[in-house]
Design goal:
Strand order of the largest sheet: 4-3-7-6-5
Enzyme class: transferase
Distance between the termini: 31 Å
Order of helices and strands: HHEEHEEHEEEHHHHEHEEHEEHHHEE
Shape: rod-shaped
Strand content: 15-25%
Structural class: alpha+beta
Number of domains: 4
Catalytic activity: ATP + protein L-histidine = ADP + protein N-phospho-L-histidine
Largest sheet: 5 strands, antiparallel
EC number: 2.7.13.3
Keywords: ATP-binding, Kinase, Membrane, Nucleotide-binding, Phosphoprotein, Transferase, Transmembrane, Transmembrane helix, Two-component regulatory system
Subcellular location: Membrane
Radius of gyration: 50 Å
């Protein structure tokens, strides 16, 4: 649910940011629009300049070149009204503009419109200068307000901005809650898939298509899980059945071979052949046992008998068993337990850990036929304990070291049989790790890492 909350929180913040950005864009657009279109209105100093450029010589009025240019750029027509109301000068004057005005007429158009022509006026030494624009070109109306209203404009603008911000946040929160309501079933469904739980999500609304796909995926995964379970069960039962069926005749072969091996009436050559039969039969029996154990460990069918064990005593016991069973002469086995490693206690299945250490020692013996020095050690690490089996033999192949941490167990199988796979699976059910490495000087080491 934390991931879903994070998604919803980010969606709310993103929506709020978008809404606030839209508010800012609208305000910027409005301000730009006001400046752009209000900027096209004639400026007072331009009207004054035009007025200054209009002069009279012997009763004849003339507009100089500069004033004419300014007038033609900004206005459509112009006229000068004398103090008695007569038009005494004009330029481009439309035909529907009167030539005589009363004081009332001047008062009515001086700031707004004259016969629907937007006009601007300026005081001239000889009267009133009137400058006009084409009809429907400028909007000029009076907006009247009290001083109190104008004084409250900053506060009103601030309140308007705050209202916009709050509206944006409320909208973002609403959208976030709506999104949360729609995505929560999807989130629950997705998190339920790895747990192999059946899904039945509602298929209506905007997320209906995704819900339908998740429901179908759940059904497919459930079917696949059942098929895999049936296959694994069949394989486990087949391995157990074959192992059981082989065990009885194999025991008979080993028994007869042992009798022939110890029969003094047989020639030495035949006794040796019987010994080889017994040894190879014993090897087959061990392989069957390994196959059963590997299968049980893979499907967590091997019962765990956890006990508090001294790792120092454990490795010493494994070494004693090998030495008492008659370790061949080309090989040597030593134990290295520092003083600080005698105290810690390890919670584990002692029989399985002994099996792992035994497999590693057997692996060193099998792959170094000319002999090697094998060492068992236990050390304390920052996270727990490390049981290590090392030798000075030819080492591991590079592909085994490179791929030993992945899911593919085929590099472990190779010519090492099931021994290393069993070691890895034993460590897995103990929640530990296994590290294969080649030593810099010579040989290899396998570390069993336990967290305490």
């Amino acid at each position: 649910m934390k991931s879903l909350r994070k998604i919803i929180t980010r969606s709310i913040l993103l929506t709020a940011a978008i809404a606030l950005l839209l508010v800012a864009i609208n305000m910027a657009f409005t301000t730009n629009w006001m400046f752009k279109y209000s900027g096209s209105q004639p400026l007072k100093y331009a009207i004054a300049d035009i007025s200054d450029g209009l002069s009279s010589v012997d009763g004849t009025y003339t507009l100089n070149a500069a004033a004419t240019t300014m007038m033609e750029e900004q206005y459509a027509w112009a006229m000068l009204i004398s103090r008695d109301g007569q038009v005494i000068w004009d330029k481009n004057l439309p035909g529907d503009i009167p030539r005589h005005y009363t004081l009332t007429d001047v008062a009515s158009f001086s700031r707004w419109y004259l016969n629907d022509y937007p006009v601007s006026v300026w005081e001239h030494p000889d009267g009133l200068l009137v400058l006009g624009d084409p009809k429907n070109s400028i909007w000029k109306y009076n907006i009247t307000s009290t001083e109190d209203t104008i004084a409250h404009v900053p506060g009103l603008m601030t309140g308007f901005l705050i209202l916009n911000v709050l509206s944006a946040l409320v909208l973002a929160l609403f959208l976030g809650l709506w999104l949360y309501h729609k995505l929560k079933p999807l989130y629950n469904g997705i998190t339920a898939l790895p747990k192999k739980e059946p899904l039945s999500l509602p298929t209506g609304g905007v997320t209906g298509e995704v819900s339908r796909i998740l429901n179908e995926t759940s059904v497919i995964l459930s079917q696949q899980e059942q098929q895999l379970a049936h296959r694994d069960q069949a394989r486990t039962e087949w391995i157990a059945g074959v192992s059981h069926d082989i065990r009885t005749p194999l025991s008979m072969v080993m028994g007869y071979a042992s009798e022939l091996e110890s029969n003094p009436s047989l020639p030495a050559t035949e006794q040796n052949q019987a010994r080889i039969i017994r040894q190879q039969s014993q090897r087959i029996k061990s392989l069957i046992s390994d196959l059963n154990l590997a299968s049980k460990l893979e499907y967590h069918a091997q019962p765990m008998e956890l006990a508090r064990v001294s790792p120092a005593a454990l490795i010493r016991g494994v070494a004693v068993d090998f030495i008492n069973d008659g370790l061949p002469e080309p090989y040597s086995l030593s134990v290295d337990v520092p003083e600080e490693a005698n105290g810690p206690i390890l919670l584990c299945d002692q029989a399985l850990i002994r099996r792992a250490l035994t497999n590693l020692i057997d692996n060193s013996i099998r792959h170094n036929p000319r002999g090697c020095a094998i060492k068992l050690s236990v050390t304390k690490s920052t996270d727990g304990l490390v049981l290590k089996v090392s030798d000075n033999g030819k080492g591991y192949p590079p592909e085994l070291i490179k791929n030993s941490g992945g899911l593919d167990e085929s590099p472990l199988l190779g010519n090492h049989g099931l021994g290393l796979i069993i070691v890895r699976r034993i460590m897995k059910i103990h929640g530990g790790n296994i590290v294969f490495e080649n030593l810099p000087q010579q040989g290899c080491a396998t570390s069993l890492l336990f967290s305490t």
